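W.,

You were right to be curious about this one. When I first looked at the sequence I had no strong expectations either way, so I just let the prediction run and decided to look at it fresh. Below is the sequence, 238 residues in total, followed by the output.
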Amino acid sequence: MSDEVNSFVDELRAEIQGIESYHNHKEMMAWTATALFLAGGAAFVSTVPRVAIEHQMAATMTIVVGAIAIAFFVYMQFERRWVASDTSDGLRATLTKLCDPSTNRAALDWTVSTDDPVPGLPKFVAQEIASVAKQKRRFRPGAHRDRRWWSEAASYTIMLLTCLNMLLVIWNPPAAEEKKIDAMAARLSELTAALPAMSTEFRTHLTEIEARLQARMLEIQKSHSLALQGTRDKAVRP
């Protein structure tokens, strides 16, 4: 191979390493989001916050919207993982073609591609990547299902089951939680019914306290008056 081709092969190898690192990052992000959603759902099911049971519709909408948002994030991470994997395999196919002595390298389209996923590389590289991606398409009729799809489907299944469990405990709370809520409601009703009597009793006590306070103030004033009168009488005596 010429020096230019050798240099290009080295560039492709470096590109493969970077794409593989990106692939691993996207896969880790997808599974991390799935694990966090599962952990949060398990904590929710085990504790069943009272506010969620008291406001079932609001809690349901919050859980559904949150689950859809997280599922979309997970889908985007898996989607970029597919692109990275197809790109890496396409670059390896390109290396194989360049290293094959029977390949007419001059006949390859070396025009620079401006399209994803490899903008800046020759078009024949983009064609190899597109060919690989077509063979491994998720829903290609009659194609052998790629094993990556099963790992992705497992993530969606776990998230769906977790979401359903969270909704189930909201609309069918455990008996212990229902008893707690019923006891609190009964206690609140008792306090509400007793509120007028408590208010009347409080006003009575307040009136009595005011009367005692006024009587005490009169006693103090009378005592001060007597003391002042005695002082004046002493001053008048010769």
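Here's what jumped out at me. The CA atoms of residues 43 and 166 lie 10 Å apart. And, maybe more interesting for your project: The first helix runs from residue 3 to 47.

Coffee later to discuss?

I.
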